[in-house]
Design a protein that fits this description.
The protein has a domain of 27 residues. The N and C termini lie far apart (124 Å). The protein contains 2 helices and no strands. The longest helix has 67 residues. It is an all-alpha fold. The radius of gyration is 39 Å and the shape is rod-shaped.
Length: 96
């Protein structure tokens, strides 16, 4: 009689251990998934921040290009730094 009770008890205990292991495996998968989602969210936030920095730098560089290529600036540099001036009428040669 004791042997049948021992078997039932062992069977119940093994079922309990199996259910506990399944629960722990599911919990570990859930925690791993949650960690991965959090890591990806941090990467997304970092990439958005990098994009914003690059957009700002792009805007600044466009303004700088517009400033550096302005005709008034180029004429000022030609007159002051390069000592250039407009040609006189007799210095102009027209080609046909």
């Amino acid at each position: 009689m004791m042997k049948a009770d021992d078997r039932k008890l062992r069977l119940r205990f093994s079922h309990f251990i199996f259910a506990t292991l399944i629960f722990m495996a599911i919990a570990l998968v859930y925690v791993w998934f949650h960690i991965q989602v959090t890591r990806i969210n941090y990467q997304i936030a970092e990439e958005i921040q990098n994009k914003n920095k690059l957009d700002e730098e792009n805007r600044r560089l466009k303004v700088e290009i517009a400033t550096l290529t302005s005709p008034q600036r180029i004429e000022t540099i030609a007159r002051i730094k390069l000592k250039m001036c407009y040609p006189k009428r007799d210095q102009v040669v027209f080609l046909k």
